[in-house]
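Hey, can you fold this one?
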Amino acid sequence: MKLHDNNNNSGKKTATVNKWLITVTVMLPTIMEIVDTSVANVALPHMQGSLNAGTDEITWVLTSYLVANAVVLPMTGWLARLFGRKRFLITCVIIFTISSFLCGAAPNLETLILFRIIQGAAGGALIPSSQAILMETFPPHQQGMAMAIFGIGAMFGPIVGPALGGWITDNLSWRWIFYINIPIGIVAVVMAALFLFDPEYLKHKGKIAIDYGGLVLLTVGLGALQIVLDKGQQDDWFNSPFIVTCSVITVLALLLLVRVELRHEHPIINLRLFKNVAFSAGNTMMFFVGFCLYSSIMLIPLFLQTLMGYNATMAGMVLAPGGLATLLTMPVVGAMLSKYDGRKIVLAGLVIGASSMFIMQGFTLEASYWDFVWPRIVLGVGLAMIFVPLTTVTLSTISREEMGNATGMFNLLRNIGGSVGIAIAATLLARYSQFYQNVLVSHITPLNQAFRMKQGIIKAGLVAKGMNPFTADSASLSAIYGMVRREAGILSYNRIFFIVGLAFLVIIPLLLLLKKQKIGAPSAGVH
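Sure. Predicted structure:
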């Protein structure tokens, strides 16, 4: 098949490129970026030792990347119009690849954080740009399948990232988790140069006025917000002057941003898109889905490793079947979207997701491996039934000219929802653990017959092993306190899983605001 003809119209050129070649082309940078978001987590202890950094300092390797990522996400559409989408995408892949090499070669923590900021800024544009290209490449009746393919790539990262990062760190060096991006980046640049072309509407006859005010306010507002969410629990939230200052900066900057963007002729983020009720509802739902997804993915391995004694590999083996279920379900959901109303599929996904959380609410300290795996599989199926149709239905009402803006904001809301979910889950876990521990400890008194019997059994066992009675008495109390902490922990996790389940259900009414896409018909478009 010809890649292009003599006609200078880029739209016609794009039409002559095989859509599957375009799909592979845009999925490479997407997978590279998503894997890099999660691959560094498991390597933090190794980085800390190698770079002689403290625990609080080394977490900035993650925070700096997320902040830069969050800032660039919503301005992707504007940047694509300013520079041309093909040129912008290739530039971002090149910068991402070079900064990956520099991260791997960083001699100290300060340099590593600097290059992670650059890497995060370049990576922030890759997902929305790729998503916008896919939505344009496939005809309306195949957009569900396009988003299913995109979703497979998006889920590939969180599944493969931690395991890959752990293996590379253990067998090579933490620096190689960055070096592996280099060959992928080179292939992605070559394929993008060959197979991607800008559509006619992205060609500009005149200069675009740069929205400097919006650029500054967006950077400051989202940067401060991400720092608050990432560091809030660690710094005891509003008892910390630093967190209070960042919170005030966030509110002021984002309020001013709304005012500036609604008045600017060429805003860096087009907030007018939110006048579209269906788009606003879809973004709100994606915020809550991000909340549920990221909080559950954080809670499950933490629960397994802190209370059940699982190592990192075994905890990953609990998560992996759920990710595999998502991968297998997404193509089926993509095919279903060409025949059925996407809103009904999202409804089924939300109910299934909530059900999985309510099953997890029943976890006990005696649960087996498979007791943990099968509700994770149920959650994986539910997420596939939410992500693909929700993305398709939400973006189907957006015109091609605004697709870059729309995908940027859609992904931003998911990421912020995830950050909020992780922050709230971590805070609730700390507070509930303390609450349940106080409740349980209040029942441990010399007058409690069950407590006296349990302590007596433990003490007798220790004495039988050769420990002197006085030390055995103290050790038995310590053992019982450990049991109390574990019991308080499981009660806390159960309560939070229940709250996450409710979060899946409370957004169901928003489905009424989404529009049913007519199968095989052109997208409505919002101009």
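Residues 403-441 form the longest helix (39 residues). Let me know if you want another pass with a different chain boundary.
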